[in-house]
Write a structure and sequence with these properties.
Number of helices: 2
Structural class: mainly alpha
Order of helices and strands: EEHH
Helix content: 55-70%
Strand content: under 5%
Number of strands: 2
Distance between the termini: 68 Å
Radius of gyration: 20 Å
């Protein structure tokens, strides 16, 4: 698959995990807000049109990667919240010592 640059200047080849030549995947180091903001820009670029088919496909693939990053962050936040709520429930149910 051809490599393309997104409007943020990042290379993408549509593959998850390691990038070209075994380079680390940049999306794995993105914070939620960074991924969300870049995803918004990708969507705007796609909606605006004026790109070639190859550029549009590269943007779409980058958008898919960014959406996965956002989903991982949100799933992790949900798991942490569920864990905290479960601990709070457990503490409330324990009989008071004394």
């Amino acid at each position: 698959m051809a490599k393309a640059k997104t409007d943020t200047g990042m290379d993408t080849d549509g593959a998850e995990g390691a990038g070209a030549a075994g380079a680390p995947d940049v999306t794995s180091t993105l914070g939620y807000e960074q991924a969300r903001d870049e995803l918004i820009e990708v969507v705007r670029s796609l909606e605006a049109g004026g790109t070639t088919l190859e550029e549009s496909l590269a943007l779409w693939e980058r958008g898919e990667e960014l959406a996965k990053v956002c989903r991982r962050w949100l799933d992790g936040a949900r798991a942490r919240l569920d864990e905290a709520l479960a601990e709070e429930e457990d503490e409330a149910e324990e009989p008071a010592e004394g």
